[in-house]
Amino acid sequence: xxxxxEEIARKLLHLFALTMPLGIYYLPQWGVPPQxxxxxLAIVLTVSIIVERLRRKIPAVQALFYRAAGSMLRKEExxxxxxxxxxxxxxxxxxxxxxxxxxxxxxxxxxxVLGDAVAALVGMSLGKIRVGKKSLEGSAACFCLCxxxxxxVFPFIPGLISSPTGRLPFNVTLATSLAVTIFELLxxxxxxxxxxxxxxxxxxxxxxxxxxxxxIAG
Length: 218
Prior knowledge:
The protein has 218 residues and is mostly helical. It has one domain. The model has no long low-confidence stretch (mean pLDDT 87). The protein has nine helices and four strands.
């Protein structure tokens, strides 16, 4: 089954989120003060939250919002915060938590944005084994993409990973890829009524796992 055009458009739009890891990692290297990415993301997040509130309270704003992006909204997002706002929130948190390790934010956010897109598109196209609203086939695609990036993409980005080969130990890449895959697949349920949105949780968790495992590996 081919994914709906709306979902394809949604995932293509989410690819713009790759500007977050690029900014967090590269702007300080270009002489921009390291706190600037966090400030910019805080402003974007604030504006996004304001728009989210206004579109649910003011009919004119709601009409404009739905005319611009309504076709890409999922049913549950019509009266709730959209995935895009959660993704910006994740970028902001990563810029703060990993301010001393911007490469961690770069890797975690990049893997999540691309892994989430691949999981959704493969799951809708080929998914047969369902896990809630998602599929094992989509998760397998997400995991493979993460591992692929660790071995054929990240090592060729100059200075990203400080090792002679530009590669991380296998246990680090495996743990980080599994973190992205598992928490993208399974809801992070804090209580029966409280589930942390995966767009917010996955990049942060993956980054924490990556930094922790890297520290253990020495």
